[in-house]
Records
---
Amino acid sequence: MLQKIQKLFAPLKGEHLPDQKLIVALVAILLFGLVMLSSASSVVSYMKNQNSYYYFNHQLIAIILGSLSCYLISRVDYHRWQKFALFFLFASIGLLILVFVPGLRSEYGSARSWIIIFGQSIQPSEFVKLAFLFYLAAWLEVKKNQLNDYSQGILPFLAILFLISFLMYLQPDLGTLLILISTSIAVFFVGGGNFKHILLVCLLGVVAIFLFYQVSNRPIEGGSGKSDYKASRFQCLKNPNDEKTRLNECYQVNQSLIAVGSGGMFGRGLGQSRQKFNYLPEVYGDAIFPIISEEIGFIFNLAFLFLFGFIFYRGYLIAKKAPDGFGRNLAIGVVFWIIIQTFFNVGGMINLIPMTGVPLPFVSYGGTAIISLMMAMGLLINISKQTREGLGVKKH
């Protein structure tokens, strides 16, 4: 398998072989994700579409398109993207504005995070995470010697981040917003941002979350299911078995915990989940992790989550050995995006943090999410082909 990978990603002039361990880990997650999506979605897929493999087939197409995008981007020197940084910023803003255009936008519940183009549903915020990362990485490289200055560093950073965040909040797409903010702060720090400035921003964020929690801590009237869903998620974190909310606002949390708990150490067995029979909502999307836990159990689940940690580790090494600040910022941004999104998804499903409604990277159903993540991985692979000595390969 390694020989086929070497041939497929043959280095261009001035490059060396890519990080093969990173690619193998990515392929393992994609294949495992397809298997688990097929199992988790089979019941609801048949009930909605009279085809047990409807979601699997669509996900397979998305992975093929994403893999093609990953391959093409991995063949392009990442430095070439730097001159398009400002364009990527405007593209980010434009994509977020499109969801408010009548005739284009598509609503799902209370969220307006999708647009319809040629009959296909697209979630612009998924591409915004990558586009904004390009701009931020390039901007930090240009401003690297001025970041200690308030007017040149933290204030412009916060102004741009606030604009993007405000548009996401209006949709509302709070889960993606939290990922974007967390990833941006990590990239700003790695890119040379003043630690005191970052600490101040984090403290303000903690205060904002605390105030929001205090507001959300008001009792939900009668458990009618008509309360603010953001407030109810905080209340479910505190007490998911409250008599008034157990069967309404906290229903998904409780069903998720049942699925995870019933998997035990070794699981019920592949395809043997009971919660996927219309007990747990969104089993092919945000809530696929509980089904995985139920079917393969705690031990194998740890091995599965280890793959995400391994990708983060390889990405860290790539960032550390990147030939310049732009490559380092991009690599850190990609791996923090993946690991933070994984934490938000898994943490929400086991009630460690409030549910954020974000998909499990590379596994949850969603073409836009898969393609944007694979594009990001193609970028990371290209950076790994230009690292300084230290990843066990020599330059041609």
Note: Residues 173 and 353 are 17 Å apart (CA to CA).
---
Amino acid sequence: MNIQIFGSSKCFDTKKAQRWFKERRIKFQYVDLPSKGLSPREYQSVKQKIGFEALVNTKCRAYEDLYMAYVTPAAREEKLLENPVLFQTPIVRNGKEATVGYHPEIWEKWE
């Protein structure tokens, strides 16, 4: 398994996901999403598996500040990549598989 956790250090679900993998002694790579972001290829891979709507955190302040609800779909993707704080966290990847949020029932099937 090649697990990557994209998340925020302030996000409780990210901390729970890290703890879940640590308790099972599964190695993972942690990427701080607000500072590093997702590369365009990683983004396309995750978006293809999960869908755009699941990736966007509509409850964060940046969503309202950037008027995400009112821009065109193409501009939304561009703004999302420019502003990683808009991502819903944690994003957990295992190769081509991906989840958004805390989903241990899915991660167990990856083992």
Note: The mean pLDDT is 90.
---
Amino acid sequence: MDAIENFIADYTADQQAILHYFHQLIKDLPKVSSKISYRVPFYYRNRWLCYLNPKKDGGVDLAFCRGNELSNENGLLEIKNRKLIASITFYKLKDIPKSAINEILHEAILLDEHVLKSPKK
């Protein structure tokens, strides 16, 4: 088992199902890597794309690191009192809108491909 699979094993059955689903979905995207950072699974390409955050109330947040820059056309993302992060909380695997999540993930990847490099001084 890798570090993220070990991480997933510590949660309830519903959380495990959601975490496993998103882990497989995200790590199968082109050029996406994953690792545990800040005690949760993060997924990145050039920069952090998103992370999974199991909540004490039994839900799992799928949070996008540059969520404030995503279009949120389907209205699923919530900024909550944050400046950059936007997330969606799920409680049951069957409640995940798969096509909408795929759209958001692909938009996050497109945004990541257009990372502006800081000019060197």
Note: The first strand starts at residue 33 and ends at 37.
